[in-house]
Amino acid sequence: MQQKKLPDSEQKKTDILETSTSSDVPQGVRRRGPDLDLWKPKTELGKKVKSGEIKDIADVIGRGTVIFEEEIVDKLLPNLGIDLLAIGQSKGKFGGGKRSIWKQTQKKTREGNKPKFAALAVVGNQDGYVGLGHGKARETMPAREKATRKAKLNLMKIKRGCGSWECNCGEAHSIPLKTSGKSGSIEITLMPAPKGTGLCVEKECKKILSFAGVKDIYSKTRGHTHTKLNLMFACLDALKNLSKAKISEADSKRLGMTEGVK
Q: What backbone phi and psi angles, to 5 degrees, belong to 222?
């Protein structure tokens, strides 16, 4: 029986993307990573990672070292999951439309309309590490690649714990403290929640928190939340502010706080 040939657009999409079904990889779109055997590091950090001198991502992020090569993250976090967030809206009849992973803009010139596409990618290992990247290009695939690369380079570790007075289990299933973040007119507040609550937050923010390893949380938003791009950056800003909080050793044990991988 002859195998049915896919259209060029679908075949190209299949070659670049694959859906992760393994239990140790976050669910969502996962791009095939670069061939690390052919990787030739250009930075001092990359050479140390390639040679095996640095084997833990915490040694890189904990020192505040800037990452310039995405292969460093692929080498140290092989189970990294990747997904695209719906920040745009596709055209529909009578002014309606569905949410899309592409945010399209157009520039009118004498030669005609010149479209441009933007994408927002999130990466994480569901165990304390998450990153967000925004990429723009004249075509969809380069925009996706730029967003994915920037998300890996912007990888950060977050603090998790059990700061809910209703639970007080001492496990790292939520966040240890109440935190807030702001981007544009949008302000989001994340609050600890007891076990079994789930992620009570906007759908796309739920993906960011899930990739970070947070399982239970409450949220409250203010501002023009229909601007999804600002909402995503506000959620990431809240996680950054949480990481900056200084907590005593006694409170850390009481809240079951952990930073990065458990």
A: -140, 150
Q: How far is CA 208 from CA 52, 117, 151, 203, in A?
A: 30, 21, 12, 9
* Share above pLDDT 90 across residues of the chain, in percent, rounded to a whole number: 55
Domains and CATH numbers, the chain: 10-81 (no CATH), 84-153 (3.30.160.20), 158-259 (3.30.230.10)
Residues 129-154: b if buried by 16+ CB within 10 A, e if exposed: bbbbbbbebeebeebbbbbbbbbbbb
Tell me the torsion sign for CA atoms 115, 135, 201, 23.
positive
How far is it, in rounded angstroms, from Cα 234 to Cα 117? 22
In DSSP terms, 130 is beta-bridged to 124, 156
Structure-block tokens of residue 248: 């005593």
pLDDT at position 10 is: 43
Cα 82 from chain centroid? 7
- The answer, as to whether pTM is greater than 0.70, is yes
From its phi and psi, is residue 91 left (phi > 0), alpha (psi between -120 and 50) or beta?
A: beta
The 8-class DSSP code of residue 123 comes to E
Over residues 65-111, the pLDDT tens digits come to: 899 999 999 999 988 999 999 998 877 666 567 888 999 888 998 88
Q: Is the dihedral of CA 196, 200, 203, 204 positive or negative?
A: negative
